[in-house]
Amino acid sequence: MTDRLPDSEFLNLVRPFTGSVAEMRPTERGFMTDVLVLIDGDLGRFFVKGVRNREGGRRDSLIRERLVNEEVRSVSPRLCWHTENDQWMALGFEQVEGRPSRFEPGSPDLPAVLDLLGRVQEIPLPALVEDWHETGWDAFAADEAEAQLFRGDSLIHGDVAPDNFLIGAGGSWAVDWAWPTRGAGFIDPAFLVLQLISAGHAPAAAEHLLSECPGWSKSDPQGIDAFARANLRMFRHRAERYPEQTWLRAMEATAQAWVEHRSAE
Q1: 99-264: what fold?
Q2: Per-residue pLDDT tens over the stretch 130-189
Q3: MF terms per GO, please (predicted)?
Q4: Cβ distance 36 to 27 under 8 Å?
Q5: DSSP state, 31?
Q6: Rounded to an integer, what distance in angstroms lies between the CA atom of residue 256 and that of residue 139?
């Protein structure tokens, strides 16, 4: 994320959709996006997300987020407009009144978080996602047989985290659909388990919270075991590669605790 407000060229691009800007505020969210701002303009109030219009992952993720929005509007803010030029690509979402959820033990947000996850899992797999297979953990699976356990027909958000599950007086929202994929139904619940352990839950307590989630309770435990081990390998690899990113070591310890719990069972 940049803490800078967007330049005049970006504002000129979005002005036909926002109108004259009365107020513009950077957000606290997002690490892989060049522009994240809340804009109040003559034509409405928007959450605006922008990336440099060059080939690569950031551009691809914004395209996916644009394409999938109509399919996930039951749980996500509505995309109001999109635009691009040679330099920038931008999405304009409706602003919602929500804050990042809290995952720690005893958080009053947990029922809403679990409800929101359940609503995400109820969304039928959109046709446009059918070929977007989840392969992000294949490199960290023990072998091809384990990697196949991550395949499935569920719509995967892929980044279940406090900043992406917003809670408000008027509802709750799953935001940042940057990499929707098709995969096993346990993947998003497993992300939540990891986040819950990281927030202070014991592994058994974190899994118990997911016991009523069909994507978790009806899945093959061997697939969850393999996914837990793949996450441990991934965080260990990245922590070694980027030692200055101390949060990676913390997540490695979280994944280790989860693997040990599942191995003991």
Answers
A1: Aminoglycoside 3'-phosphotransferase; Chain: A, domain 2 (3.90.1200)
A2: 999 999 999 999 999 999 999 999 999 999 999 999 999 889 999 999 999 999 999 999
A3: kinase activity
A4: yes
A5: S
A6: 18
